[in-house]
Prior knowledge:
heterodimer, A: Rossmann fold, 10 strands, B: two-stranded antiparallel sheet, 73% helix
Amino acid sequence: MLTVxxxxxxxxxxxxxxxxxxxxxAGSVTALLGANGAGKTTTLMAIAGARKVSGGTIxxxxxxxxxxxxxxxxxxxxxxxxxxxxxxxxxxxLENLVVAGSLAGDAAVSRARRDEMMTRFPILAExxxxxxxxxxxxxxxxxxxxxxxxxxPRLLLLDEPSLGLAPQMVDRVxxxxxxxxxxxxAILLVEQNVPLSLEIADEAVVLANxxxxxSGDAASLADSDLVRSAYLAA
Amino acid sequence: MDVxxxxxxxxxxxxxIYALLALGLAIVFSIVRLINFAHGEIMTVGGYGVFVxxxxxxxxxxxxxxxxxxxxxxxxxxxRVAFRAMRGASVVSLLITSFxxxxxxxxxFQNGISARPKPIQLPASxxxxxxxxxxxxxxxxxxSILTTLAALTGLTLFLRRTETGMAMRAxxxxxxxxxxxxxxxxxxxxxxxxxxxLLAGIAAVVWTAxxxxxxxxxxxxxxxxxxxxxxxxGLGSLSGAVLGGFLVGIFEVFSQAFLPASxxxxxxxxxxxxxxxxxxxxxxxLIPAAKVDRS
Lengths: 234, 295
């Protein structure tokens, strides 16, 4: 469904992503792992059209999306839940969802999706009129996911959803990812929590200094010595 | 005491115009980080729209609508022709672009229409005044205050209740994120310019009614004051722009009315010194904009 080949991204003089290959198959989860600054977020934002691609190809459903504005990529069926959640802090929970639902172009569809999100995340229904900036980190993460789902995507790009959350909340986030996967949503998961990510993912790609250092199916990666010594502290 | 109250009415009517202009500047700045120096010319076009309609003997309500629509169209055209190509450019490049547009339009008005003020004939009923609780209050200041209030209420409702309004508030906070939700950036930016043009058009109508004439610089000076108002209130903050607008209006009217004649040449200097004093204490303005800057 998503195929990234030889992707390069420059930040000014810095070559942040150097020839990355990765793929997400329909209905599966690909984990994108690596240390801070390895190029994970840059790769994800480049796929979403929010960073300028300097080389390589990105294909979504077999069509190249390099150079396409982010709003058109999203409309093609891809959703982004960015690092740091980036909820609109001064808008209420409900307003965050209304804004995200506007791409449906149909008030009834948008309302139905909103109701769906409120049922799925009861805490959001409870806080619907509260400003998003006043929610806890975990609640903001739920809102960020719900906001991404408002476009009824087929592929979800999730960037560090467990970052800065309490252990209990981390479990809930991974439960959520699991249930989204069970519903058939394809997911590209950028994470620093390697053990949990490998458990949930079908495939994994490990980045180091902007390059792929190792990739393959998640189960065999979890058994590999390199990953075990570097991330799993085995 | 009566004099103070009457001057207060004048201050509110002038401050209201500054508030409308400052709001237009703030709405555009909050979304595209553009300080639009050509905002004054958007207002001037509105004034000429009214002038041309009345010249042809068209009814006043029609002239008002044409004036306002002319401002909206000018603002949207500016965005489409000049600023869209510059999207994402540095603040300085955007500022210089807006200077250029402003100069081009001013020259067009001077050479195409007239460098001198053109009088506008208004019905006598508008220039009158009425008594309220023993005070003499002008009809036009009253209309301008009511118009400003209606515009501010309408704007608040628009930003709070409509999808586009919410998207504009979201864009002011995190424009890239809004695009990452699939919301069309160009539409939100066009809406912001249309809104700023609408507010400038309303200001133009009220200003023209107060002055009874239009000239190529009619928008330039009030917008200069509106710039001061946005900085005083907090650049990019909408409530700050309104507060700043009214404060500048109050400063201006009261210094005009109550400063001794020997000090009046220094009026602007005194007002601006007061602004500097406020900024020394509150560098981000009175009501700073809540904005997460992302690079």
